[in-house]
């Protein structure tokens, strides 16, 4: 595979029937390239601290090998035209169905492969980044907060020591594509807004939800915040005694296909992108972009 791109190497790895048989030297080469930034990351320190920011939030996008990745080129074209200061992948960019504990033993599990899942997410990143690179002079800070689907990788390695060193989150190639990667449920703040795949509601560690999930984030976390996970879009704000606004949002999802496991819940999901405008000291104005609106604007 000498001279081939990282995406090509991963597609070749995905074609192997059992990823456990992947040649150790080939795996080491892929890992080394995955850890080498192809696109120089922009540090969060370079984001203006007080100027109003525009932040593009990508809700759960669930790249998988059996669903076309065309939407990621659309995403890149949108970002290149909008030119937000910050781009946040809120998590679950990689769907990772091969590591789903819920589907083991079911007919739908047949044929799933780890490297095929990784290759799907890498292909999505290639499509997205290609459009960003075409926008001359544009280099946003890109934050990735890993989701529970990416966290399946670490859980498998913890449960079964045979997988230690064989699989890991470096396979996601975040550094290679210039993402500042935050661990699952790690909270990062940009412009005074806290970002995480989801925030927990109590000691049991469950995701904040309910009929008014954005309002519950404010009530439970007492900060301005954005989370994903639920595939819903919701927005709420409250004002503290000093007059400061606290804003919270759920970021919806960035895919159009139906997920069979969810049944009627598919009809509840909000599909598109969330843009936070005028982000200053935790305050922001939400701007929702449906797929139809995206396509009309990009042309």
Descriptive overview:
It is a single chain. This protein is an alpha/beta fold and 299 residues long. The chain has one domain (52-298): Metallo-dependent phosphatases (Purple Acid Phosphatase, chain A, domain 2, 4-Layer Sandwich). The protein is built from seven helices and eleven strands. It has helices at residues 6-14, 24-34, 70-82, 114-133, 151-159, 213-221, 291-298; strands spanning 53-58, 86-89, 141-145, 180-182, 188-190, 193-195, 225-227, 233-239, 245-251, 272-280, 283-290. The strands form two sheets. Strands 4-3-2-1-10-11 form a six-stranded mixed beta sheet. A five-stranded mixed beta sheet has the order 5-6-7-9-8, with helices on one face. The protein is globular and about 60 Å long. The two termini are 38 Å apart.
Can you give keywords for this protein?
Purple Acid Phosphatase, chain A, domain 2, alpha/beta, 6-stranded mixed β-sheet, 26% helix, single chain, 299 residues, 5-stranded mixed β-sheet
TL;DR of this structure?
This protein is α/β, with parallel strands linked by helices and about 300 residues long.
Give the N-terminus to C-terminus distance in angstroms: 38 Å
The level of helicity is 25-40%
Radius of gyration: 19 Å
Number of helices: 7
The tally of strands reads: 11
**CATH level-two architecture:** 4-Layer Sandwich
The CATH homologous superfamily is termed: Metallo-dependent phosphatases
Count the domains.
1
Principal-axis shape: globular
Strand order of the largest sheet: 4-3-2-1-10-11
Mean pLDDT across residues: 87
User: Which blocks of ≥5 consecutive residues have pLDDT under 50?
Assistant: 15-22
CATH topology: Purple Acid Phosphatase, chain A, domain 2
Order of secondary-structure elements? HHEHEHEHEEEHEEEEEH
Question: Largest sheet, if any?
Answer: 6 strands, mixed
**Beta-strand content bin:** 15-25%
SS content category: alpha/beta
CATH class assignment: Alpha Beta
């Amino acid at each position: 595979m000498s001279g081939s791109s990282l995406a090509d190497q991963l597609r070749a790895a995905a074609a192997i029937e059992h990823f456990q048989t992947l040649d150790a030297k080939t795996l080491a080469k892929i890992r080394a390239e995955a850890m080498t930034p192809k696109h120089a990351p922009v540090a969060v320190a370079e984001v203006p601290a007080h100027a109003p920011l525009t932040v593009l939030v990508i809700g759960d996008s669930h790249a998988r090998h059996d669903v076309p990745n065309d939407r990621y080129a659309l995403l890149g074209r949108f970002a290149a035209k909008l030119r937000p200061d910050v781009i946040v992948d809120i998590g679950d960019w990689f769907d990772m169905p091969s590591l789903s504990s819920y589907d083991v033993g079911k007919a739908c599990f047949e044929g799933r492969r780890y490297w095929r899942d990784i290759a799907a997410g890498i292909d999505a990143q290639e499509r997205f980044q290609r459009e960003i690179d075409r926008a001359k002079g544009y280099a946003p800070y890109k934050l990735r907060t890993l989701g529970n689907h990416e966290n399946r990788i670490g859980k498998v390695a913890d449960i079964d020591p045979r997988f230690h060193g064989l699989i890991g989150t470096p396979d996601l190639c975040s550094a290679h594509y210039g993402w500042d990667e935050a661990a699952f449920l790690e909270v990062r703040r940009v412009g005074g807004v806290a970002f995480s795949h989801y925030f927990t509601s109590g000691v049991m560690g469950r995701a904040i939800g309910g009929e008014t999930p954005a309002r519950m984030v404010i009530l439970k976390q007492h900060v301005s915040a954005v989370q994903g996970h639920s595939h819903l879009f919701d927005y709420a704000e409250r004002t503290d005694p000093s007059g400061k606004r606290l804003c919270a949002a759920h970021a919806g999802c960035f895919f159009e296909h139906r997920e069979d496991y969810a049944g009627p819940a598919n009809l509840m999901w909000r599909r598109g992108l969330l843009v936070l405008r005028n982000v200053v000291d935790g305050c922001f104005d939400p701007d929702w972009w449906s797929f139809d609106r995206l396509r009309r604007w990009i042309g």
